[in-house]
UniProtKB/TrEMBL annotation:
InterPro entries, per the entry: Flavin_Rdtase-like_dom, Flavoredoxin, Split_barrel_FMN-bd
Origin superkingdom: Bacteria
GO molecular function: FMN binding; oxidoreductase activity, acting on the CH-NH group of donors, NAD or NADP as acceptor
Residue ranges of domain Flavin reductase like in the record: 12-160
Record's protein name: NADH-FMN oxidoreductase RutF, flavin reductase (DIM6/NTAB) family
Reported cofactor(s): FMN
Family affiliation: Belongs to the flavoredoxin family.
Length: 162
């Protein structure tokens, strides 16, 4: 990485992003991965976008299943976020390795994270390549507000806003 790329990467760390754990299940295959590139894109219909590297195991799962769940998490799940963001489902079943407690979804097949602040069940409505990532646009078909709390965010470190 050259000096210009390092400077650019360092500057982008000043953009605060919500940390989420995205889950997807397709038949016998499933994954949970940490995503920090997430945004709302429409109120009517309710649409959100997540950006996922094409190298991630979950990338093909979402493309095939045409659905995903976005679990907005609090700081108590920081260790889980770090685990899901650094381990690959090519090597380990994250659900079993970490003993992730899940809940059954209402309208999709992908599991919900029981200890999340919010779970957003999404059906895939569009996807497009953006550089080294794919932007997945999902329509929120069910929302579960599980508990109060401040969402975990990332800038140049993980934190919550006080």
């Amino acid at each position: 990485m050259n000096t210009k790329e390092k400077s650019f990467k360092q500057a982008l760390k000043k953009i605060a992003n919500t940390v989420a754990i995205v889950t997807c299940e397709n038949g016998e295959r499933r994954d949970a991965t940490t995503v920090a590139w997430i945004t709302k894109v429409s109120n009517v219909p309710p649409l959100i976008m997540i950006s996922v590297s094409s190298k991630r195991y979950i990338h093909n799962l979402i493309s095939e299943a045409k659905e995903f769940n976005v679990a907005i998490i609090g700081e108590e799940l920081e260790d889980l976020a770090l685990f899901c963001g650094t381990k690959t489902a090519y090597d380990v079943d994250k659900f079993n390795e970490w003993n992730i407690e899940t809940m059954k979804p209402y309208l999709i097949s992908s599991p919900l994270i029981k200890s999340a602040l919010v779970n957003l069940e999404c059906t895939l409505v569009n996807k497009f390549e953006v550089g080294d990532h794919t932007a997945f646009i999902g329509e929120v078909v069910a929302a579960h507000n599980l508990r109060e709390g401040k969402p975990l965010i990332v800038t140049d470190r993980l934190c919550t806003l006080d």
